[in-house]
Amino acid sequence: MANQITKTQQTLKSAEVKKKFEEVLGKKTDGFVASLLSVVGNSNLKNANANSVMTAAMKAATLDLPIEPSLGFAYVIPYGAEAQFQIGYKGFIQLALRSGQLTGLNCGIVYESQFISYDPLFEELELDFTQQASGDVVGYFASMKLANGFKKVLYWSKEQVMAHKKKFVKSSNGPWRDHFDAMAKKTVLKAMLTTYAPASIESKMIQTAITEDDSEHFENARDVTQDEPIISIDESVNSEVKNEESYQESNEGVLQDNAIEELFPVGKE
């Protein structure tokens, strides 16, 4: 196992691999590769082959998302002998904020005690968050506010989420079994961003993130999206800004705010 880790790290240190990352990240390469080597040395990737680790990491690099697990933006995690890329809840928020057109983004769980009504015709959701969360979970929401004043709230009942799971996830094991609410929130957020995100280069990055996220492609994959409490829009935005600043400072200026120009082709979900 130790030999496999060493082999993977040696592969990632090679000039050929570094060149590939430089084509995408430019001056950010050294900091990103250092984070990747740390992840490989301190995770369960010891059995994953080097090529799959590099492929998963390249997806994160293309989206310009750090892979340090503590930051919660993106992850490279094992799936047997293969590594997989997963974007975190915070990663979707970060990509959306980069557009400069978004002033708020949030998602959460709706309990029976909080639900009042939902009008699917005008997509008007009425909730009472003054009520203590009790009873069954009846649905999940995602909300978005743009700088031009446009607001959007998307609500899926638990039945809708279950139908999505049945369509796209063929296994009864994995993240949907162990972290259903986290996966449900992430799914509704993805659905809203796919349909209503501003038509800009950054929204294309969001579409790419949705396509490249392996959490639904690997039937027995382990989801790493943590269950997070419902927070206000301002708290959500400020949290992402602080995390990004912390990441940049930890790499001693190596990370620069240059945009990623080359993206993976966008496919179907």
Automatic annotation (TrEMBL):
GO terms for molecular function: DNA binding. InterPro entries: RecT_fam, ssDNA_annealing_RecT. Residues 246-269 are annotated as: Disordered. Pfam families: RecT (PF03837). It comes from the Bacteria. GO terms for biological process: DNA metabolic process. This is Recombinase RecT. It comes from Lactococcus hircilactis. The lineage of its organism: Bacteria, Bacillati, Bacillota, Bacilli, Lactobacillales.
